[in-house]
């Protein structure tokens, strides 16, 4: 019987959640969820000087916004330090690690001597590796693992393929410092083992760590997980993603008004492919996501493609769900919340504003007519359509609307008739109607706006504009 898949996301809470980290979390989530497995979350907070509760909160909020739920409680790596130390002591007992009493100065002197001898690269060879216990001093010591000195270590990676590391380049790394605190390398392996992680899916900047961590698994006779090291995300210019390329933190994308479903879709496709699949739901992605679809080359962030993907998802969204996302966007961006009346009108207007909007701010601009209250103040472009003649035509239109059936089929002949009576085409009438109803030159159709805001509000806006 195959063991259930268990993946994890293990960020360090030293800053915002980088978009690259968000994609790593997404890949882990999709892989586990698509196989009925578990997706775990661990906060690697052993760097006590740089780890902050605010950064942890930002990570949790970012993952929640992206729609990535995790199983069980969030694990704190720092809280498990005693367990890490326990494993280091067990390695000592097994003979796969040893006490090292070398001081920092002695190690620096050794490296300086190697450089003086013309050795450009050398790993520290501790004199305590095979020392007789009778020679151990009464002094603090670090615990180092015994790395193999000859041969090669093979890392079988599901993305990068077989990676070979010469053992002579691997040092006897410290697993427990002389002050009793565990190192990152030990903590990661112990946590992954204890949490039952079967697949380690992470950035390829950790690929070199896999060989060293694999030695700890071997030293403890533990099952090595499946490795999958994914390429990093680069900017559009092919260089490492940085602030000069635009938003790099996940929360910035919510503030910019990208919908979460669109972000999930885009990030899934960023470095992974499945045939010609471009637009898909998370459920569809879970069904087909696999490790062999991940490319080896760094993915390039493409904001135009992101916007196009998000536009598709806005158009596909359920109206009520989209309204809730807009409320969350406004709160995240520090913008005024919608009133109950505005929310009701916006939901009513969704059918005519969500098509072709690529971001939530674009959607809100299209829905401007449903969110404003009288008096409607036209912008400069639309105000030009409200000349004396146009205001007179609007004034003559309002009596026809008092008793009309409030449907497009009934309104269309009325508006066309008034336009004909004044010797103009409907297009000439539409411009002042847009200015009166929305105060904008670019809006949904005048019929859609009239149907959304209703008879009384339509007549009131037209009367004000005519006056």
From TrEMBL:
Residues 5-307 form the Glutamyl/glutaminyl-tRNA synthetase class Ib catalytic domain. ATP binds at residue 243. A motif ('KMSKS' region) lies at residues 240-244. One of its GO terms (biological process) is glutamyl-tRNA aminoacylation. It catalyses: tRNA(Glu) + L-glutamate + ATP = L-glutamyl-tRNA(Glu) + AMP + diphosphate. Keywords: Aminoacyl-tRNA synthetase, ATP-binding, Cytoplasm, Ligase, Nucleotide-binding, Protein biosynthesis. A motif ('HIGH' region) lies at residues 11-21. PANTHER family: GLUTAMATE--TRNA LIGASE, GLUTAMATE--TRNA LIGASE, MITOCHONDRIAL-RELATED. This is Glutamate--tRNA ligase. It comes from Pseudogemmobacter humi. The gene is gltX_1.
């Amino acid at each position: 019987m195959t063991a259930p898949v268990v993946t994890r996301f293990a960020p360090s809470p030293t800053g915002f959640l980088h978009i690259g980290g968000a994609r790593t979390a997404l890949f882990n989530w999709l892989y586990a969820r698509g196989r009925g497995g578990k997706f775990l979350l661990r906060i690697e907070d052993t760097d006590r000087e740089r780890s902050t509760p605010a950064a942890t909160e930002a990570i949790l909020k970012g993952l929640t916004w992206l729609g990535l739920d995790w199983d069980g409680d969030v694990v704190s790596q720092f809280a498990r330090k005693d367990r890490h130390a326990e494993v280091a002591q067990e390695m000592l007992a097994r003979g796969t690690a040893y006490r090292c009493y070398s001081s920092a100065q002695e190690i620096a002197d050794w490296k300086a001597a190697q450089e003086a001898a013309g050795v450009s690269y050398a790993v520290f060879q501790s004199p305590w590796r095979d020392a007789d216990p009778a020679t151990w001093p009464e002094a603090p010591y670090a615990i180092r693992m015994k790395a193999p000195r000859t041969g090669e270590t093979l890392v079988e990676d599901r993305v990068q393929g077989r990676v070979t590391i010469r053992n002579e380049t691997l040092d006897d790394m410290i697993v427990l410092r002389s002050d009793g605190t565990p190192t990152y390398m030990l903590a990661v392996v112990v946590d992954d083992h204890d949490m039952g992680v079967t697949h380690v899916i992470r950035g390829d900047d950790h690929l070199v760590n896999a060989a060293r961590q694999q030695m700890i698994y071997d030293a403890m006779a533990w099952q090595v997980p499946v490795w999958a090291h994914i390429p990093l995300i680069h900017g559009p210019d092919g260089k490492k993603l940085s602030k000069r390329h635009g938003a790099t933190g996940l929360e910035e994308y919510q503030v910019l008004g990208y919908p979460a479903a669109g972000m999930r879709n885009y990030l899934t496709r960023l470095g992974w492919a499945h045939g010609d699949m471009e637009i898909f739901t998370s459920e569809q992605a879970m069904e087909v996501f696999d490790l062999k679809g991940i490319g080896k080359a760094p993915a390039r962030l493409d904001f135009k493609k992101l916007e196009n993907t998000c536009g598709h998802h806005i158009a596909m969204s359920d109206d009520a769900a989209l309204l809730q996302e807009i409320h969350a966007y406004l709160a995240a961006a520090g913008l005024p919340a919608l009133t109950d009346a505005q929310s009701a009108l916006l939901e009513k207007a969704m059918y005519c504003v969500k098509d072709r909007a690529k971001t939530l701010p674009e959607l809100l601009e299209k829905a401007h007519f449903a969110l404003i209250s009288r008096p409607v103040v036209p912008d400069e472009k639309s105000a030009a359509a409200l000349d004396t003649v146009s205001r007179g035509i609007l004034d003559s239109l309002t009596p026809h609307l008092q008793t009309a059936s409030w449907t497009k089929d009934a309104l269309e002949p009325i508006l066309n008739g008034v336009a004909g009576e004044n010797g103009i085409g409907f297009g000439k009438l539409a411009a002042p109607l847009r200015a009166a109803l929305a105060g904008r030159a670019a809006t949904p159709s005048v019929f859609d706006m009239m149907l959304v805001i209703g008879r009384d509000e339509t007549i009131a806006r037209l009367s004000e504009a005519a006056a």
